[in-house]
Amino acid sequence: MTSYRLTDKDSLPRLPRGGLSSAPPRAGLQTLDDSGLVYDLGNERPFLARSTPPASLYRTAADRPASPGASGQTWRLMQEMQEQLKLYKKELEKKDDLITSLATGSSKGHETPKINGYFSSGDPAYPPQPPPQPPPTGGRTLHYRMAAESVTGELAAMQVKAERLQAELGETKNRCAIKDVQIRDLETEVQSYKEDNARQVALVQTLRNRIREMDDETGTLSVVKGRGEITIQALQKEVREYQDRVAELEGRLRFKERRHVTFLTDQNFRSHINEREGAEQSSQSWERKYRDLCTEVGRCINLDTAAGSIPDVIEKVTHKINTILEENTMLRGRLSTLTEALNSSELETKASRETIMRLVSEVGREQRNLSQINTSTEQLRMDREEAIRSKEALVRENQLLRERIESSEKAWKSTRDELEHREGRVQTMDEKLRTSQYTAKAAQTQLDTFKQAIASLLSDGHHIVHEREDDIKDRIRSIMGSSRDKQAESEMLDLKVKELTKQLESQCELHQQAIRRAKKAEAHVNDFKERLSNMEGELSSSDVLRDGLRTDKQRYLEFLEKMARVMKLDEIALDVGFDLNGDALVARAQQLVHMEGDSLKDRTTHVYNLQRKVKQQKEQLESKDLHMDLLRKKIGQLEEKLQGRNELALERDDASMKIRKLQKQVERLQGQLGNARAMNTELKAKLQEVTDLKVRTLQQKDHIKEQEDELLRLRLMKEKLGKKVSNLKSEMQMTEAESEETKVLSSNTVQALSNELRSTKLALDEVARREKELVDFRQVIARMLGLEIHTLAVPNYEIIARLEKLVNAHHSHAATTLGVETALDDQFVEGYVDARRFLKTSPRSPRRARSVSPTRRYYQTQ
């Protein structure tokens, strides 16, 4: 027979009576062989392995054998003990497996949740049942509570971190939005700068073209100015010469007349009269030629010399020439002022050219700055895009962190809820278990009454509903289907009602519109009536006016007929008609007025000429009388001077030649005067152009000032833009640093959250594993105890009660084997008295009759 031994690994601890956990191990190990002897490994003392004490312990002193030689009874006892050992061997193998599983489970899972004596089972077939005396809550619940409190603290810290990250993300979003707005403003400003730059370039080009035109015009003006000065000086010189010559000719004529008078006195009176008449004729012819010359000169200088005497004409001509000279001097002054203005405009044009060149250089510099600003804006846009990408990455990371936090919160909440739920279930299961038994019958009765009431309510004359659940459910389904149909019908009716209400509202609106139109039509009718009454009054007044006009027309026609008869146009009026009679009368009146004016003018001119001639004749007569007196006095002198007659003729010829030359010179002067007038008009035009140029130069000055102000504004804006760009760069750097900090913080928080999540997952896995081990442990214990856990709901307290019974049996078996060991040292001889003393002193259970063995029963029956 092979022996079965326990090793150190399979050490069997002695379990206390109160429970399975915290059982101290036995000091020594024991072995069991097939002979029924159990050896203590510490001292190698054999003892019999039986579950009950031997029969000799229960015998009295009278029943004790007389001598140790009675071996038959001992042999039978040994056989019975071996049979019992064979039975216990199988039980010990099962117990060994159970205890090893218990030992491994207790050593591995000290944190197994044992709440109030309940094994946490997730199987719904085995709900937790209240034990008769639940043990107190151990350190595992406290550990879970502490872990839950630490997890809540960490969760609150993570929530604060998440809120801070959300706030920082909102701030970064706001900053990015502000930067987007600033970048858009900068782009619009850069675009406006580009447009202003293009306008300034176009304006500079137009100013350059204008400056070129002004240079050309100033050159032409200087040339025209030189020519005008030369012509004016020549004209002034010629006018002085003409004045000197006219004075010299007048003196010579007077001298010749005197000599002529003295010459006539030497001749006889008749020849003298003839010559005098010839001289008068010649003088008249010369006077006529001189008058013609004066008229030509007056026509050339735009002067009326037809009326008036020669001295008056000469005075007018001289006055006109003086005015022309004054105009010439004034034009010279203007020309000098124009030259000064031209010089100043040239200086201003030079200054404006320099300013334009400076503006061009500044525009180029601004363009370069603008290109730099464009590059900086491009860089800023790239930085902004990078910041947006980093922001999106941060948003995604934050979202992931949030999701992880939410998942961890959900897991933590689920664990906390599960713990709270379990504690609540543990606390309320007793009450529910007590109350559920009492309320089950009441609930059943209420359910029956409820079924009866529902059946009575659902049944009618056509349908009778029984108290079964299926009939009630079918009836409720049919009622719900009919209610759905009715609800659909009601919805259709509601839709129809809504449509009808809409149609009614539209009809009401149409009715209101018709009423408003009728009111408007009534107002129009009243207005038309008022207008009709007004028109009737106006028509009656117009009829009265028409009658008055008809009478006025009749009078007017009669007046026209009378006027035609007076103006001798009655035949023409009959031929033409009354329509054109007024025009004919007006034309006739204009003709008469014109003829009367011409006749009056001719008469006045004729009278004036006659008066002038009479006056001249009177003056001539007086002068002739004086001349006659003088001639009488000087006849002697003329006779003496008769010899100088040839010289007078020569001088007369010379005078006639000089007069011809003077006429030619006057004609030439008239041509030069016309040229001078043309030049004067040209100079006036040039003066107008110069004034226009001055106005343009003033405008250019104003424009240049505006450009300078604009340039100053651009410089200020450039400085502002530089400051803005520097601020934006600093803000971008700050945002980058903050984003990096937030990124580092988020990565740290993510790492911490991932670690915590990993630890919580591991803890949850460990809890699930331990729970599974506990469930398996419970199933194994129940199966080893012979309980059907798959078909019956076995409570935990029953398993614990059976385990306690098993442990008690084990303790009793250990005590029995100890007694057998001490008794078999000297074949039950030594120690018998001690055993008896022990049995007497120890509390004994009431004796029960032993069952008879089959062999003894057989012999007894025989």
Strand arrangement in the largest pleated sheet = 1-2-3
Order of helices and strands: EEEHEEHHHHHHHHHH
Structural category:
mainly alpha
Fraction of residues in H or I helices: over 70%
What is the mean pLDDT? 68
Q: Tally the helices.
A: 11
Approximately what portion of the residues adopt beta-strand conformation? Answer: under 5%
Uncertain parts: 1-71, 106-138, 842-850
Q: For the terminal residues, how far apart are their CA atoms?
A: 35 Å
**How many β-strand runs?**
5
Biased composition (Basic and acidic residues): 1-12
Biased composition (Low complexity): 851-862
Organism: Branchiostoma lanceolatum (Common lancelet)
Coiled coil: 148-203, 232-259, 384-411, 501-538, 621-770
